[in-house]
Design a protein that fits this description.
3 domains, Growth Hormone, Chain: A, disordered N terminus, mainly alpha, 17 helices, 480 residues
Amino acid sequence: MALPRLSHKWTTLGVVATSVFTATLDASAIAVALPNLAVEFGASFDTLQWVVLGYLLVITGMLLPIGRAADALGRRRIFLGGLAVFVVGSLLAGLSVGIWMLIGFRVFQALGGAATQAIGAALVIDAFPGHERGRAMGLVLAAVSAGLVAGPIAGGLLTATIGWRWIFFINVPVGIMSLALGWRTLPVSLTSGPRKFDFAGSILLLVGLVLLLFGLNRVQVTGISSPSASAPLCIGIVLMLLFVWWQQRTPTPIVTLEMFRVREFSAATLASFITFLGLSSLVLLLPFFLQRGIGLTAFEGGLVMATIPLLMGIAGPVAGAVADRLGTRPIASAGLGLTVAGLGLMATLPDSTGPIDIVLRLIVVGIGLGLFNSANASSLMGAAAQQHRGQASAVMALARNTGQSVGQALWGTLWVVIATSILGVTTIVDQPLDAAFDAFRMTWTVAAMVAGIALIASEARGRTKPLCGHGNSISPLPHN
């Protein structure tokens, strides 16, 4: 009788990991093709940004509503439906004949991507016993890392050989196989019963998040004083406050706010948000530093940047297994300590630096993030009651995406302010940046300090016990 159980949990992991890998690869691969899209469709840079930004906005805004729908209607049903939408959206995106048609189909594709991101972790946590939870989450995060590593490489190869459309077409056969396997093997998951869906809360959350992220995106282009940035920011903040107020009063909330009363859950969520806020300083600035600062080609720069997701993929599964034995807090906090150290080391790069110096520093960041992500995800999901795990999985993805989105505006703005006030460099896009190393170093110094706050949040979760020997525990309470 043990063999079917092993088959069930590993096939569940396989379906989720494949779906996450495909969505991650697609999101990172399309960025490489943007110059080709500009030529083929005659699109401006501002318009091209929406190929990526539209996808990100929809996923971020839909995570919590989809997570709540999954808890009410069944995680298997919503996950497979989202996967089907992603496959259809990929096919339509590949067939696009205009830039706005592509953007529209990317938005449709994002609805499916939001479902897989919001629910995948919950399906894996349900499938594995408690003492294997960390290892399982480490393997899922390894799939994310593999997608981040393979995306730019695959995107460049496909675009240069058979065309950018195959970045989307390749999702179709992989998605169909995942759908077929998931339909046969994913179990019917626990639901919270027939409830009315909170459409008012969904609209407040979606519109509020979209306006917030759009406003933050405009800050780095027009400045905070511009109405195109300040107006959506202010309206978005008001709508998000209304969302929290409404969630406390409606009988069918999108997110059960009581989950945040569990210290382990709230601390893990905050640590995740702040960590990815700090990490986004590398995601945004490092490509410009490598190409315009030290003169690497785009391909060479991509290989250097692959260091972080590669090390995350290697360290993640190991960290998850160790966290199962030692507890999640020491592993998550140790990982954040390395992340802070790596960002601090980036702030010490000399003017005459080369790729080897940078790779050695990024190795520290990559190992640290691999340790943190696996242990923190296991802690966050384990702190949620089983009937709330769809929401918890969505909250985890929302914290990650929001941290990255806010960071894109924060670090871009900070770099521009430092470079302008100290060095007289006015743009990060079209000027050589070898004379602006101080701006990079100062920005990464602040990012290291921000990541240090995440370390404090991680420690605030309290002492966590190892899960080995505890069976398939689903207790929502922290072990303090």
